Amino acid sequence: MDISNAAKALSALSQESRLRAFRLLVSSGIEGMAAGRIADALEIPHNTLSTHLSTLVNAGLVNSRRESRSIIYSIDFEGTRALFTFLMEECCQGSPEVCLPVLESLLPRCCDSTKPSGVNS
């Protein structure tokens, strides 16, 4: 990840509703959640949430996929891991391997080992 993409991702997370949505999606794992369920859980109007979710998708932090008439959003573990790696790559005076356990604990393997079919980046 380069600094421009990192800034875009951090900017997307710097708004309260988007940060709340991101955290909710992290907890939902690879299955994700339908947009309506996210809106209800966060008590955000559906049209407002749609804008926030689009920002997160464009920042590479969230994926979307269509299932029947619903749009399902899920965390983009690769994009999220890339952001954390970027933030920590100069860890411990240029020894990123020291921070590797931190990165692995943030995004467990169980959550990103497979993606549901039809996931869009």
Write the layout of secondary structure elements.
Blueprint: H1 3-13, H2 16-28, E1 33-34, H3 35-42, H4 46-58, E2 62-67, E3 70-75, H5 77-88, H6 91-94, H7 100-106, H8 109-112
Antiparallel strand pairs: 1-3, 2-3
Helix pairs in contact: 2-4
How would you briefly describe this protein structure?
With 121 residues, this protein is mainly alpha-helical. It has helices spanning 3-13, 16-28, 35-42, 46-58, 77-88, 91-94, 100-106, 109-112; strands at residues 33-34, 62-67, 70-75. The protein has one domain (3-112): Arc Repressor Mutant, subunit A.
Q: What would you say the CATH architecture is?
A: Orthogonal Bundle
User: What is the CA–CA distance across the termini?
Assistant: 15 Å
Question: Total number of β-strand segments?
Answer: 3
Mean pLDDT: 85
CATH secondary-structure class = Mainly Alpha
Q: Could you state the CATH homologous superfamily?
A: Winged helix-like DNA-binding domain superfamily/Winged helix DNA-binding domain
Instruction: Please tell me the total number of domains.
Output: 1
Shape: elongated
Structure description:
The chain has helices spanning 3-13, 16-28, 35-42, 46-58, 77-88, 91-94, 100-106, 109-112; strands spanning 33-34, 62-67, 70-75. Strand 2 (62-67) and strand 3 (70-75) form a beta hairpin. The protein is elongated. The two termini are 15 Å apart. 60% of the residues lie in helices and 12% in strands. It contains 8 helices and 3 strands, in the order H-H-E-H-H-E-E-H-H-H-H. Residues 112-121 have low confidence and may be disordered. It is mainly α. It has a 3-stranded antiparallel β-sheet.
